[in-house]
What we know:
By secondary structure, this protein is α/β, with parallel strands linked by helices. It has helices spanning 16-24, 37-56, 70-81, 107-118, 136-142, 165-174, 194-197, 246-284, 311-320, 340-344, 349-352, 366-386, and strands at 4-5, 64-67, 98-102, 122-126, 147-151, 178-182, 201-205, 216-220, 288-290, 301-306, 323-324, 355-359. It folds into two domains: 4-10 and 262-386, Alpha-Beta Complex (Aspartate Aminotransferase, domain 1); 16-258, Type I PLP-dependent aspartate aminotransferase-like (Major domain) (Aspartate Aminotransferase, domain 2), CATH 3.40.640.10. It starts with a strand and ends in an 11-residue tail after the last helix.
Amino acid sequence: MRKxxxxxxxxxxxxxxxxxxxxDSLNLFGNAxxxxxxxxxxxxxxxxxxxxxxxxxNAQPGEIIFTSCGSESNNLVxxxxxxxxxxxxxxxxxxxxxxxxxxxxxxxxxxxxxSLERQGFKVTWLPVDKYGLVDPGLVEKAITKQTVLISxxxxxxxxxxxEPIAEFAKIARKHEVYFHTDAxxxxxxxxxxxxxxxxxxxxxxxHKLYAPKGVAAxxxxxxxxxxPVLQGGHxxxxxxxxxxxxxxxxxxxxxxxxxxxxxxxxxxxxWKLREKLRQGILEKIPEVVVNGHPEKMLPTTLSVIFKYIxxxxxxxxxxxxxxxxxxxxxxxxxxLEPSHVLLAIGLPHELAHGTIRFSLGSENTEExxxxxxxxLPGVIQELRQMSPLWPGNKxxx
Length: 397
């Protein structure tokens, strides 16, 4: 059975060059905080990787903090900026207790903000339009003298819509409010330049750009005050205690180096594959709707509603044929509730439940798309014939 992986937004396979650098570094066991040769060898590898991560997003190495995952990076910003510990505070701290975010953020942004909301913080949950776009006018209108942080993702993990981050950041800077963007789905797929964007914080994750799981990074603009969430040693400028994940960091650095080198070529290739898949679905399968913005869209992401049937059933049928897709984000799987993103763009529950996310990567080929289009129409037809909701089903009541 042919295996076709179309769930790259959930996680990506290791790039062969990343795998090789991991193998080559397995004996690099020294603690990067140790002063002897073994430790300093590890320290050099960590700092070399920091330079590569910084270079990818046009930052300085000292502005990069290594973490364990995108969720930790997001939590470090949200909890670190709003920290009420007087020992963490400085003259740059903001006393306000108001946060602005959108209704389509990743759970690692939404949940810590909801936690702060239960502790007395005021939160403005900005709506989005049918494409998943946040209105910059609503961002500015929501700002008060108490606003301490605005957090809006660069590109949505489920529908792929790209937000006007530079515009949001400019508004935040005008009002002297910190701005954070979760760019986990965007780094390596879009040109990311923190100087042009004007953000104070930017999160990225290794396993979304062909590095292993368990390593990520956070960009922090110089002069911004953040309290550590994981307290311990002096590592990562005192903002993230704990011995560094040297192997993971080396791998992340290599992945960022590859992304800087190959991004343009990969994007061109993936856009072509995405369009081939999109057009194939629209031509061969009736009663479908494509989610997300028609132009401001990640090249990797295709979210499609197949009316009158359940996405979970589609996923399982495709999986049995060797095709891996998602019904939404991997972080929200395992729940019977529809995706909060799909509900936020105005989909009724029954359409949200019938949505499949195809997410492509650099390893996908035209043969993968051809095979998917051989299998998918039959799966949809078979499931619709069993659905009492399908108008073409004569047995429907």
